[in-house]
Amino acid sequence: MTDTSEFHAQISQLPPPDRTAFLFDFDGTLVDIAPTPDSVVVPDTLKASLRALRGRVGGALGVISGRAIDQIDHFLDDLPYAVAGEHGIAVRHAPGAAIERADLPVMPAAWLEEADAVAARVPGVLVERKRAGFVLHFRAVPAKGDALRAMAERWVGSAPGFHIQAAKMAWEIRPAGVDKGHALNAVMASAPFAGRLPVFVGDDVTDDDAIAQARALGGVGFRLPEDFADPTAFRGFLARLAASGEGASWGV
Ligand SMILES: O=P(O)(O)OC[C@H]1O[C@H](O[C@H]2O[C@H](CO)[C@@H](O)[C@H](O)[C@H]2O)[C@H](O)[C@@H](O)[C@@H]1O
């Protein structure tokens, strides 16, 4: 939990509730990093905070994640109004709406086949599939990180239009051209986000594009661990914010 002066310094940077749109990264921001993608835990207290905050900002609360949208649905159900997945390649503007996908090059199938073969051979290497690409996870075998990176560099060096997204103990191979800054812009263009100021919070290199874009639009970008020590601290902030002030004020 942030102390009172830090909390007030943070909320004093926020636009008033009727002008705020919240957009949050998922892994490492809303939830703690876990040994595998499937094993993250979403505390009930976080769900309660997100529900309350979504009400305070007229529904304008979304998630911008590297994960596929169905993964965010699995963990958060319909709590976020809008969800952008795969680092902005897929965007769903409202619960139940169609998913818009960026028109990007299709990845050579041979790359995924080679990745699967490596994962079958090397215990601890995990391949996470997404529609436009895949992630090579090595959290369970950190010593394999360099070799996996070299393999991924060989792939992307052989075909233009793809790049390696550095992640936490993982390399993601995906089409280039869309990032979380594009995702933030896309979400902010529709109701109930349009006309509000984005407050984006993230923790990783992929989030820096959205932080920069939130600031470029006149909003706020916070980053972990610089602004919140870890997801526990950030969840504490959200819980306190949800309970703070009323109507047109956050309580400052
Ligand atoms: O943009 P995010 O919502 O932060 O998603 C980024 C990636 O997060 C996931 O991987 C990371 O978190 C896992 C669970 O804590 C962890 O096991 C893994 O080592 C991390 O790299 C997710 O699996 C990826 O698809 C996301 O791109």
TrEMBL record:
<keyword id="KW-0378">Hydrolase</keyword>
<dbReference type="Pfam" id="PF02358">
    <property type="entry name" value="Trehalose_PPase"/>
</dbReference>
<keyword id="KW-0460">Magnesium</keyword>
<dbReference type="GO" id="GO:0004805">
    <property type="term" value="F:trehalose-phosphatase activity"/>
</dbReference>
<dbReference type="GO" id="GO:0046872">
    <property type="term" value="F:metal ion binding"/>
</dbReference>
<comment type="pathway">
    <text>Glycan biosynthesis; trehalose biosynthesis.</text>
</comment>
<keyword id="KW-0479">Metal-binding</keyword>
<comment type="similarity">
    <text>Belongs to the trehalose phosphatase family.</text>
</comment>
<dbReference type="InterPro" id="IPR044651">
    <property type="entry name" value="OTSB-like"/>
</dbReference>
<comment type="function">
    <text>Removes the phosphate from trehalose 6-phosphate to produce free trehalose.</text>
</comment>
<dbReference type="GO" id="GO:0005992">
    <property type="term" value="P:trehalose biosynthetic process"/>
</dbReference>
<dbReference type="InterPro" id="IPR006379">
    <property type="entry name" value="HAD-SF_hydro_IIB"/>
</dbReference>
<dbReference type="InterPro" id="IPR036412">
    <property type="entry name" value="HAD-like_sf"/>
</dbReference>
<dbReference type="InterPro" id="IPR003337">
    <property type="entry name" value="Trehalose_PPase"/>
</dbReference>
<dbReference type="InterPro" id="IPR023214">
    <property type="entry name" value="HAD_sf"/>
</dbReference>
<protein>
    <recommendedName>
        <fullName>Trehalose 6-phosphate phosphatase</fullName>
        <ecNumber>3.1.3.12</ecNumber>
    </recommendedName>
</protein>
